[in-house]
Amino acid sequence: xxxxxxxxxxxxxxxxxxxxxxxxxxxxxxxxxxxxxxxxxxxxxxxxxxxxxxxxxxxxxx
Length: 62
Known about the structure:
The protein starts with a helix and ends with a helix. The protein has helices at residues 3-30, 36-43, 56-61. It has three helices and no strands. The radius of gyration is 23 Å and the shape is elongated. It is an all-alpha fold and 62 residues long.
């Protein structure tokens, strides 16, 4: 058996299961009950500077 066949068989079976398990783990990590406040704060970052948009100070000086 050559190296390509061995790696192909591994990728088609165990690596697929490992990647699917990692995907499910990430989804469960993001949707865990205690993470809502963290993601709500992160989602609000673009709106923190509502009085003056980013870069407005540079336009006033020019």
